């Protein structure tokens, strides 16, 4: 399956929309996570505490860690990760909203699941 030309690296793209029904609980959990991080310098801790207190989306970014998603998957090691969070307007019944809309590969036929060309 693996040839010398095949990369050992795999990119997994995940988009998650969360409904926050208790902002205080999220903020408190993020503050606990920041407080428990013994590697965080004091000045960075102050900035992090301010950020998670002012913005629930930022608090979620401190709580959702890509490493946690793959840490127990055998045979893999997280090489790099980036993630962000933002508040969005979300209407799951809207025909204009859907997962993967931004990730559609224009050279890919979704019906046959094969590359076009």
Quickly describe the structure.
With 117 residues, this protein is mainly α. It contains four helices and two strands.
Mean pLDDT: 83
**Anisotropy-based shape:** flat
Can you count the helices?
4
Which regions contain 5 or more consecutive residues with pLDDT less than 50? none
Count every beta strand, where a strand is a DSSP E run of 2 or more residues.
Answer: 2
Taken in chain order, the helices and strands follow as HHHHEE
Give the N-to-C terminal Cα separation.
24 Å
| Widest beta sheet: strand line-up | 1-2
**Which class do the helix and strand fractions yield?**
mainly alpha
Largest sheet composition: 2 strands, antiparallel
Give the % helix. Answer: 25-40%
Radius of gyration: 19 Å
Beta-sheet strand percentage?
under 5%
Q: What labels would you give this structure?
A:
117 residues, 2 strands, flat, 4 helices, mainly alpha
Give an overview in words.
Strands 1-2 form a two-stranded antiparallel ribbon. With 117 residues, the chain is mainly alpha-helical. The chain has a domain at 12-89. The chain is built from four helices and two strands. The radius of gyration is 19 Å and the shape is flat. Helix 1 (23-36) packs antiparallel against helix 2 and helix 1 crosses helix 3. It has helices spanning 23-36, 42-54, 56-63, 66-70; strands at 108-109, 114-115.
């Amino acid at each position: 399956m693996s040839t010398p030309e095949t990369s050992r690296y795999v990119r997994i793209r995940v988009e998650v929309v969360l409904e926050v029904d208790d902002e205080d609980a999220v903020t408190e959990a993020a503050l606990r996570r920041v407080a428990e991080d013994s590697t965080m310098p004091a000045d960075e801790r102050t900035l992090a505490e301010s950020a998670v207190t002012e913005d629930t989306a930022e608090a979620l970014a401190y709580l959702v860690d890509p490493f946690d998603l793959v840490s127990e998957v055998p045979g893999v090691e997280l090489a790099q990760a980036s993630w962000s969070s933002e508040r969005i307007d979300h209407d799951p019944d809207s025909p204009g909203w859907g997962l993967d809309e931004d990730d559609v590969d224009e050279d890919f036929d979704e019906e046959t699941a094969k590359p076009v060309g």
